[in-house]
DNA sequence: AACATTTTGTAACAGTTTGTAAGGTTTTCC
DNA sequence: GGAAAACCTTACAAACTGTTACAAAATGTT
C-alpha cells in the first residue's frame, strides 16, 4: 500500500512515533510484525503511537503519560491483557480496545466485562480497526457535542444554550421555532422539502395534507423578518423552503 | 427519496415490554423471530425494550421518548438503517449499535463512520450482544464517575458535604433541591427529559401527569436565578430541562 | 410529647405555545 | 380573465409550563 518508511526494529520500551499527531494511542502487542503494521497505519493517520511489547513496558507507558486510546493484545509473554486491565482499570480514563486472536464468545465477554470498550478478533482489517478507533475516540472525546454552535451569515445559533442571534442581537424563539431554525441552519441556502422537514420536526412520514410545517415556518418567518438585513426563509413553490441571507437594499 | 408506502402490517407502533427495567432499549429489526428472541433476552435482563419493525415505527419511537441505547438493523422494508442514522444522528443522545447480516468491511466502516457506536454482524451470540450493550451503556451512562465534587462554569458542587456554590458563594439548598441540581450538574448543558428526571428523583416511571418535577425545578430555579451571572435551568417545551451558564449581558 | 419551623406535594390559576380549521392570497395554467 | 393549486395567516381551542397557595409531612426544639 505504502512504501516502508522506517523500520521499527526492536523497541525495548515504549517509543514514540509519528508526527505529533492528533491522538495519542498506546499499543500493547507482542507480535512485532503486526505491531509494526499497526504503528505505521496509525502514524499515517496522524496518530502518535506508543508501542509496548509486554506487560512491563505497558505499565511503564501507562504511568508515564496519558493516552487517548489503548489497543491491547490479550496473550502476552509476561502477563495477560485481562489481568492488566483489571489492575489498571481505575487509573485509565481512556477507552481500551482488546485486539486478540482469542475469538471465543467467552473471551470476548470476559474482556468486555472487565471494562474494555471493544473487543476485536484478529485478523482485523486495518480500515475497520481505524473506524472502530475513531468511533471510540469520538464518543470519549466529546462529552458535549463539538458542533455546539453554527453560523450562517448574520445568523448564529448556540445549540447548548439554545439561543439564536441575528446580527449579534438575541432572537427569542420558542422551542419549535428554534428546532426548525436549527434544521435550516444545518443546511443553509439549500432547498428543504416539506417531507424532509416534516420528518425531522414531527417525526413521521408526511401525509401530504398536514399544514404544521407551513404554520411553523410562518411563525418563525415573522420573527426573522422583523430584523432587517438578516436571514429569511424563502419558499419554493411545490418544492419546499430554504434559508437565505437577505440582500441588503441595493 | 419518495416515501415508500408500506402496508402497515402488525405492530402498528412500538410496543413496550418488560418489567420497567433498568435500561430503556429501542430495537429496530424487521425479522420478527429474531426480534422476539432479542426482546425476550433483554427483558430477562431487566431492560425495557421497545420494538420497531420498520423505519416508520422507529421514527415514531424516537420522537416519543428517550432511550439509553438503540439496536438497529440495516436492511429494512421501508428504509435503510444507515439513512435513518444519518437523519436522526443529531437528535440522538444515546449510543446506537448496528446489528446486520451485512458483514463486509465496507458496510461496517460505513456504519461506524455514520456515527454508530458499534457494528455487530449477524448471527451474534446473545451473551456477546449483552456484553456489548453493557459496555456501551457503561461508557455513556457515567459521564461523571464517582467524583466527590464537580463544577460547571460558576457552579461547584461538593457531594461529600453536599454544599453547592455559585461564584464561590454558598448556595443553601434543601435536600431535594440539591439532589436535583446534582443530576443536572452530572450532565450539564444537556437536555434532560421529565421522564428521566422523574425516574432519577422519584424513582418510578413518569405517568405523564405528575407536576413534582416542575415544582422542584421552580424552587431550585428561584434560588439559582437570585445570583446574577451564574447558572440557570432552561426549559425546552415538550422535551425537558437543561442546565446552562448564564450569558452575562454583553 | 407538644410545639415551631422547614420542607414537600397537590391543587388551582395564569400565561405561553402549539395544532387544527377555515378563510384569504398568490401563483400557475388554461 | 378565471379556475385550480399551493401557500399564508387569522382565529380559536387544546396542551404545556410556571407560579401561588395551602395542606401534609418531616424535622428540630423545648
User: Which regions of chain A are unreliable across 5 or more consecutive residues at pLDDT < 50?
Assistant: 1-20
Q: Order of strands across the widest beta sheet of chain A?
A: 2-1-3-4-5
CATH level 1 name of the largest domain in chain A: Alpha Beta
The run of helices and strands of chain A is EHEHEHEHEHEEEEHEHHEE
Query: What is the typical, i.e. mean, pLDDT of chain A?
Result: 87
Largest sheet of chain A: 5 strands, parallel
Q: For the CA atoms, what is the radius of gyration of chain A?
A: 26 Å
In terms of structural class, how would the helical and strand content of chain A be classed? alpha/beta
Approximately how much beta-strand content do the residues of chain A carry? 15-25%
CATH architectural type of the largest domain in chain A: 3-Layer(aba) Sandwich
User: Rough shape of chain A?
Assistant: elongated
The CATH topology of the largest domain in chain A is given as Rossmann fold
Number of domains of chain A: 2
Strand segment tally of chain A: 12
Largest interface: A-B, 38 and 42 residues
Count of helical stretches of chain A: 8
Measured as a percent range, the helix fraction of chain A is 25-40%
Oligomer: homodimer
The CATH superfamily name of the largest domain in chain A is Response regulator
Alpha carbon gap, first and last residue of chain A: 56 Å
Amino acid at each position: 500500500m505504502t512504501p516502508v518508511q522506517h523500520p521499527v526494529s526492536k523497541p525495548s520500551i515504549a517509543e514514540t512515533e509519528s508526527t505529533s499527531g492528533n491522538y495519542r494511542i498506546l499499543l500493547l502487542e507482542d507480535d512485532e510484525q503486526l505491531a509494526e503494521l499497526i504503528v505505521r497505519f496509525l502514524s499515517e493517520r496522524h496518530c502518535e503511537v506508543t508501542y509496548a511489547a509486554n506487560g512491563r513496558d505497558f505499565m511503564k507507558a501507562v504511568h508515564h503519560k496519558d493516552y487517548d486510546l489503548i489497543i491491547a493484545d490479550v496473550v502476552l509473554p509476561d502477563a495477560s491483557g485481562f489481568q492488566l486491565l483489571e489492575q489498571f482499570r481505575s487509573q485509565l480514563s481512556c477507552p481500551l480496545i482488546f485486539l486478540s486472536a482469542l475469538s471465543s464468545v467467552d473471551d470476548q465477554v470476559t474482556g468486555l466485562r472487565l471494562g474494555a470498550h471493544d473487543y476485536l478478533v484478529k485478523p482485523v482489517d486495518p480500515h475497520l480497526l481505524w473506524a472502530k478507533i475513531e468511533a471510540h475516540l469520538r464518543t470519549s472525546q466529546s462529552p458535549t457535542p463539538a458542533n455546539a454552535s453554527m453560523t450562517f451569515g448574520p445568523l448564529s445559533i448556540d445549540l447548548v444554550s439554545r439561543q439564536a442571534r441575528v446580527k449579534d442581537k438575541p432572537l427569542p424563539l420558542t422551542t419549535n421555532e428554534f428546532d426548525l431554525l436549527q434544521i435550516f441552519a444545518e443546511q443553509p441556502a439549500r432547498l428543504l422539502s416539506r417531507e424532509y422537514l416534516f420528518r425531522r420536526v414531527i417525526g413521521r412520514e408526511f401525509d401530504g395534507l398536514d399544514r404544521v410545517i407551513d404554520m411553523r415556518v410562518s411563525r418563525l418567518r415573522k420573527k426573522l423578518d422583523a430584523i432587517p438585513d438578516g436571514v429569511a426563509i424563502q419558499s419554493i413553490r411545490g418544492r419546499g423552503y430554504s434559508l437565505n441571507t437577505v440582500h441588503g437594499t441595493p
